[in-house]
C-alpha cells in the first residue's frame, strides 16, 4: 500500500511523468521498500541520479537528492560519500547514462569499492531522448538510430561490474518485485560497491520499435524469460540459452574505500610518517 511508504515521496510532485506502461515506478517502489526494510535514516540518506528517464526519480523521492549531469552520477555520489562517509548513498541511473557516457566512472567506482548502492534501470534504450540504441540494446534490436537492427553486441553489465571489482552484484526485474526489493536490501547490507541491474520495460520506444506487444506483454516476457540463479545452476547449458539469470550473482567483501582512506588520515594525524 502506498500509505506505508508515502513518507518517502514528495507527493506534491506526483503524478510522475513516466509514460503509461513504463516500469520505472515499480523499480522506485522496490528501492523505497528496501530502504524502509533496512531502517535507514531518511535524513542521512542521499539519492543521486544522472540524466534519463530513470534519473527523474530523484525529483519524486523525499530524501537528500541530487539530479546531476549526464553520466556523472557516480562521480557526484563518490564526492558525497567521501565528504561524509556516514551517509547512505544511492545512485539511480539508466543503461545509457551509466554504460555509455558514464562508463568510465562506472568501472572505476566499482574498482574503488566505495560504499555506494547503485541501481541501474535497464530498459535497453535511450527512452528520454528519442529511442536511440544504447550499449545495453540487444544485437538485432531496432531503435531510431538502428532502424534495420543493432549490429553491436551489448554489455553484460553484471559481468562487467564483477570484472571491475564490485563486491556485490545482483540482477532483478520489474515483474518479480519481491525479489527485486530483497536484492536491493541485501546490497545495502554490503559494505562496499553494490550494483543491482533492474530490468525495466519501455513499451513506447523499445517495445513499439521491436513489436513486443503492450506493457503487459513485456512484463509477461520478464516472467517467462527470467530464471533465478539457483534454478540456472541446476540447468544444463543448452536449457539456459536465451534466459536472463536473476538474483545475487556475486558477493565477495573487500576493504571499503572510505574506511581505508580514514586509516591514512588517522595515521598521519597520529604523527606517523610512513
Q: If classified by CATH, what would the architecture be? A: 3-Layer(aba) Sandwich
Fraction of residues in H or I helices: 25-40%
Rg measurement, Å: 19 Å
Strand count, sense and barrel status of the largest sheet are: 8 strands, mixed
Name the shape in a single word. globular
**CATH hierarchy, class:** Alpha Beta
CATH topology category name: Rossmann fold
Classify the beta-strand content into a percent band: 15-25%
Number of strands: 10
- What is the SS-derived class? alpha/beta
Distance between the termini: 56 Å
Q: What is the tally of helical segments?
A: 11
* Number of separate structural domains: 1
Write down the overall mean pLDDT. 95
Question: Which H/E pattern describes the elements?
Answer: HEEHEHHEEEHEHEHHEHHEH
Low-confidence stretches: none
Which structural traits does this protein have?
alpha/beta, Rossmann fold, globular
Kindly describe this structure.
With 274 residues, the chain is an alpha/beta fold. The chain has a single domain (19-256), classed as Thiamin diphosphate (ThDP)-binding fold, Pyr/PP domains (Rossmann fold), CATH 3.40.50. A hairpin with a 5-residue loop joins strand 5 (125-126) and strand 6 (132-133). It has helices spanning 24-38, 73-83, 95-101, 103-112, 157-164, 177-189, 203-209, 215-225, 229-233, 237-240, 257-269; strands spanning 45-49, 64-67, 88-94, 116-122, 125-126, 132-133, 168-173, 194-199, 226-228, 244-251. It is built from eleven helices and ten strands. The longest helix is centred in the N-terminal third of the chain and has 15 residues, at 24-38. It is globular, with a radius of gyration of 19 Å. Keywords: Oxidoreductase.
